[in-house]
Amino acid sequence: QVQLVESGGGLVQPGGSLRLSCAASGGTFNGFAVGWFRQVPGKERELAAAISWSGNTYEDYPVKGRFTISRDNAKNTVSLQMTALKPEDTALYYCAAQRRSYYYISSAYDNWGQGIQVTVSS
Predict the structure, then answer these.
(1) How many CB atoms lie within 10 A of CB 27?
(2) Cα–Cα dist 106/109, whole Å
(3) CA 18, CA 90: separation in Å to the nearest integer?
(4) Interatomic CA distance for residues 42 and 50, integer angstroms
(5) CA distance 27 to 36
(6) How many CB atoms lie within 10 A of CB 52?
(7) What is the pLDDT of residues 54-112, one digit of tens each?
């Protein structure tokens, strides 16, 4: 198990950028794949981007080319750089981690942060 703490959310105008960070609190990301999920009211939580322990990445189609996930294993942090933001990117974003399966398998994630709000609006 690992405790996750997200930071960096907020309000941004369409076309703007925002960077989310996820830190491992009281532990490390050693061996964990880490993903960023997002959820809007009334819809299921969706995997937006994920990164393996070795640095392989996955980005879901709606964010591909706009969102970049990266990790610094020495600092126990994973970041999600979001650019060209759209109103439809508005959601509660969750950091999650797992060591059970491949990094792009959303159902494998079993450690969750509290979530952080991202709102894209003018």
Answers:
(1) 14
(2) 6
(3) 12
(4) 23
(5) 19
(6) 16
(7) 999 999 999 999 999 999 999 999 999 999 999 999 999 999 999 999 999 999 999 99
